[in-house]
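Working notes for the structural subgroup meeting. M.R. asked for a predicted model of this chain before we commit to crystallization trials. I am recording the input and output together here so anyone reviewing the notebook later can reproduce the run.

Input as submitted:
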Amino acid sequence: MNAITKAAASAHSARPFYEEHDISDELKSVLEEEAKLLIGTRRRSTEDAFEEGERLERIATLLPEGTLEKWAVECCGYTARHVRTKRAVYRNLQAHKGILVALAVGPTVLGKMSAATPEQVEEIIGFASTHDRLRVQDVTAIIARSTSDMGETPTIDPYDAGGLDGLKAIIAIKVRDGMKAFEAHIAEILTHVAEALEKKNIVKTKLVKEVALTARLAHQELGSLAEFVAPHETAAYVIHPTPLPAGSRWAAVSASLYKMGSETTWPDKTELRTWLETEVVPTLTWATAKKSVPTDPDAPSPDVAVPEAAAVVAETSRAFEPVASAARSIENAVTSVAAAFGSDVDVSIPETTPEDTIPTVTETLAAPTKKLRRPTFMDAITPAAPPAAAV
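Returned structure, recorded in token form:
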């Protein structure tokens, strides 16, 4: 039986409900359309669970108080428990929707989480962020442990909790609050851009003043959330962020925000509108879309593939390379200084291949520490006599 057939059968069985509560024909028509949407819900994704709960909350405002569950039972074939659970998911977990969607937490697990306290939800999210998949039994165990510990031990500030569990807790806070801030700043930028595009003439200086600092902030927030840090390939004492994969959509988001951060990198006024319409708006809209990959409404949303842990390949971003073509190279400078003292210094840098990777922290710590050696040409320098004392 398809969704339309089920909806028609349910609407017929719900006739006594409409008559009992004196539901007008106009409202009845609206409720039957809502019933069709509820019956046709896939209920397979995290997003679906939140949408279903939000729809039930909205329908509750249309019906006489306290009658939603009865209506859902008679008109949609739901159970009262199902209705309560979906509404609880929307009410209690809405603030965490972004991270829960990103973690792809299943609807059944969400239902179990909806009964947790805010502190327990934070702990569950911290657990989920460090595991491949969150299961119902994991949520049950966390809630049970947390409940049994209540009253036995004082509440500990997450930033004072030690060990890996403490680190996981503050990572969960960072992801939750960091994503909210990033999304809010992108929305602010898009709002100003949309207002500028509505006008016939775009005042470039005004728009730059409105969005440049916010774009810089969003660029740093994205790097803080999505980039790693690693030693430089040829100078391990230099620690720098590893860029997002070249050519990826998120690398394009990072580049757009960086470009918007300074008026000197904005295009000329003649090209400004095209740049905003074809690059800035689509890229930033994609970055804050609710689905993992925006597609046509009828197209299935693909799963996000999370690769296994692997070494990070260092890639130098051309967009951030300093231009110093006229400056004398370090190799030439050192060589000329050494030649003045009659010494030769090998300053060649070993060649790297695309397969070279940044060592892990474990590998770096395991490697023997290299001691600094005195350059050979320093031995040829005769110390100067100390200056005579002033009389």
